Amino acid sequence: MPISLTREHDGRVARVRFDNAGRGNAFDDAALRELVAAMESAAAEPGCAVVRLDMAGRHFCGGWDTSSFAGLGAATTESVAAGLRDSDAQLGRIRDLPVPVVAAVRGRVIGFGAGLLAALHLPIAGRQARLSLPEVRFGFAPAGVGFTIAHRLPRPHAYALLTGVTEATAEQLLGWGLVARVVADDDLEAEVDAVVAGLAAVPGDTLRGVVGVVEASLATGSPERAYQISAATITSGELRA
After folding, report:
1. DSSP-derived pairing of the beta strands 13-18 and 3-8
2. What integer is the mean pLDDT of 60-68?
3. Can you give the C-alpha Rg of the chain in angstroms?
4. Residue 101, helix vs strand vs coil
5. 196 within 8 A of 53, measured Cβ to Cβ
6. How many C-alpha atoms does 208 have within 13 Å on its Cβ side?
7. Which secondary-structure segment (H or E) carries 44?
8. What is the pLDDT, as a whole number, of residue 102?
9. How far apart are CA 197 and CA 213, in angstroms?
10. Measured between alpha carbons, how far is 99 from 207 in angstroms, rounded to an integer?
């Protein structure tokens, strides 16, 4: 799977490009693991402050590669459940990256793509982006994506999406907190460029601190870790008067 990594803004930005555009950026196990490994490697560099994820082509993500569905009918419930858990664990590694991930969201976001979208820190959508969950048409209930949608959306909207009754617009994704902002499609790349440049200008490891504050607060429901993280950034020598 063609995945490339380049660095910009004097190494402050790691740009990871995923290119399976010929299949709408659909994923299988190997592709997901390769992408996660590339993003973790990028974020591990001490000077890295932001990861920019570029999904090639016209669509953000075409879901899970349907060519892998053929053999699932003969598999055991336990083995399929284990595979689903593993896919979610891979997405969890993206959520757990120590720096924010920024991405342009254009075209279609299908099935598994909703889970990838929800794992990102700062996704920015083009106005014509659409999210759909077609799993029921293949005869199965969504798993990790179902959990994500059930927790992030009002109950009637979750049912409408998960049963395939409707698809979600970019404005709905914004209202549900699945994207950070929505802009005209023609302005999407310029908007992402501007956001990334602004983040790259934040001094030192401040952005790592912000990610730590947000994720620790969500995980624990307590401000205790936030106090410690904030104090560490204040005393780091990067404080601007």
Report:
1. antiparallel
2. 89
3. 18
4. strand
5. no
6. 18
7. helix 29-44
8. 98
9. 22
10. 6
Q: Are 41 and 79 in contact (CB under 8 A)?
A: no
Closest alpha carbon to 186 in 103, 232, 128: 128
Quick count: other Cβ atoms within 10 Å of Cβ 139? Answer: 8
Q: What is the pLDDT of residues 123-137, one digit of tens each?
A: 999 999 999 999 999
Count of CB atoms situated within 10 Å of the CB of 34: 15
Question: Rounded distance, CA 127 to CA 234, Å?
Answer: 38
**Is 101 buried (19+), middle (13-18) or exposed (0-12) by CB count in 10 A?**
buried
Which two three-digit tokens encode residue 216?
């620790």
Q: Is residue 75 predicted with pLDDT exceeding 60? A: yes
Q: Are 9 and 51 in contact (CB under 8 A)?
A: no
Q: 13 phi and psi, to 5 degrees?
A: -115, 125
pLDDT at 1: 56
Reduced to 3 states (helix: H, G, I; strand: E, B; else coil), residue 110 is strand
Specify the amino acid at residue 239: L
Which strands form 130-132's sheet, in the order they lie side by side? 108-110, 130-132, 168-169
Single out the residue of 137, 212, 128, 106 nearest to residue 117, CA to CA: 106
For the segment 174-227, what is each residue's pLDDT rounded down to a tens digit? 999 999 999 999 999 999 999 999 999 999 899 999 999 999 999 999 999 999
pTM for the complete prediction?
0.94
